């Protein structure tokens, strides 16, 4: 009996040793499998990261259709207050072989009005101001006639403003002009594809200018456009005009008729030849420019020295 008992005990010990070996083997297998899964996951994360970085690098500059806001390379943007593209202009222009339009540093910054905007003196004696906390109140009399005289280094352009049909827009332009907001600023963009000259960017002399600090409501319309007019620029959003404007120089601007909400508020009475002369100095923006595809600018700086408002 003793011998049989010892045999059973020995068999039990062997079975337990064998079971422990099996369990150890299974644990080692699970550990290797888990490490393999973690390694694969780490590789996948790294590959995804590389792919994302590569994609960002590839799309930083799209020279085929830059800054267009659309996947159609035949469409580009006209001007807007914040540099945001608005469909309507052709991108058939190409960059100049060398160089590009004149780069004009902005005029010195003017004063800041932090509260309500007072109506500036009609005699133009207000200090130059370039930042406002609020849009101006109604400072003009829509029953009167207002004209604006642009004194530029290329010549003088005069226009009548439509205070009767566009009182809010005219009021805004008159107030900014009387605060000398536009004095010393550049006409920085020319686009022969839609016959426009753009200006009114007091801080940067570019379409990405932050503007005066406020926007004005849309009014009037639907508009049709022809040569010899002054029109407010805007973003793609409603009620987004601020200070930037464009001057129309030819019939191609009618391409914007279907847009209909660029605020048309004045007509050129003298100096259309000056505007055409400015347009003749066109040089395309280089391919690497933030405004590539949006036309170009004048070869040499074109500066608005002053805008004088006359009230009758």
Describe this protein's structure.
- The protein is α+β, with helices and mostly antiparallel strands and 312 residues long.
- It has helices at residues 2-59, 167-178, 272-279, and strands at residues 76-78, 86-89, 111-113, 129-132, 146-152, 155-161, 185-191, 196-199, 229-232, 245-248, 264-270, 282-284, 296-298, 303-311.
- The chain is built from three helices and 14 strands.
- Strands 5-6-11-9-10-8-7-14 form an eight-stranded antiparallel beta barrel.
- The N and C termini lie far apart (134 Å).
- The relative contact order is 0.18.
- Mean pLDDT is 80; it is low at 43-98.
CATH top level label of the largest domain: Mainly Beta
Structural category is alpha+beta
- The beta-strand count equals 14
Q: Considering the protein shown, what is the CATH homologous superfamily of the largest domain?
A: Cyclophilin-like
Instruction: Going across the biggest sheet, name each strand in turn.
Output: 5-6-11-9-10-8-7-14
User: What distance lies between the first and last C-alpha atoms, to the nearest angstrom?
Assistant: 134 Å
Determine the mean pLDDT: 80
The CATH architecture name of the largest domain reads Beta Barrel
Domains counted in the coordinates: how many?
Answer: 2
As residue ranges, the low-confidence spans are 43-98
* Helical stretch tally: 3
């Amino acid at each position: 009996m003793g011998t049989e008992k010892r045999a059973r005990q020995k068999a039990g010990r062997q079975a337990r040793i064998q079971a422990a070996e099996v369990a150890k083997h299974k644990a080692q297998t699970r550990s290797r499998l888990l490490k393999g899964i973690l390694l694969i996951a780490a590789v996948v994360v790294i590959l995804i990261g590389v792919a994302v970085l590569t994609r960002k690098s590839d799309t930083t500059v799209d020279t085929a259709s830059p800054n267009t806001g659309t996947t159609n390379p035949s469409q580009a943007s006209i001007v807007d207050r914040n540099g945001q593209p608005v469909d309507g202009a052709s991108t058939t222009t190409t960059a100049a072989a060398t160089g590009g339009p004149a780069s004009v540093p902005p005029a010195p910054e003017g004063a800041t009005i932090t509260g309500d905007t007072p109506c500036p003196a009609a005699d133009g004696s207000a200090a130059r101001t370039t930042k406002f906390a609020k849009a101006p109140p109604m400072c003009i009399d829509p029953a009167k006639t207002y004209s604006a005289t642009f004194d530029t280094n290329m010549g003088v352009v005069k226009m009548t403003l439509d205070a009767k049909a566009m009182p809010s827009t005219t009021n805004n332009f008159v107030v900014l002009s009387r605060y000398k907001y536009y004095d010393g600023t550049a006409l920085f963009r020319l686009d022969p594809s839609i016959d426009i000259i753009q200006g009114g960017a007091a801080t940067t002399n570019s379409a990405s200018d932050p503007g005066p600090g406020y926007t004005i409501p849309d009014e009037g319309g639907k508009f049709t456009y022809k040569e010899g007019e002054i029109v407010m620029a805007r973003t793609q959003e409603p009620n987004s005009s601020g200070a930037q404007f464009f001057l129309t120089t030819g019939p191609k601007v009618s391409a914007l008729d279907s847009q209909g909400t660029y605020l048309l508020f004045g007509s050129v009475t003298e100096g259309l030849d000056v505007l055409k002369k400015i347009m003749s100095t066109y040089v395309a923006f280089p391919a690497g420019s933030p405004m590539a595809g949006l036309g170009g600018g004048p070869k040499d700086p074109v500066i608005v020295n002053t805008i004088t408002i006359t009230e009758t």
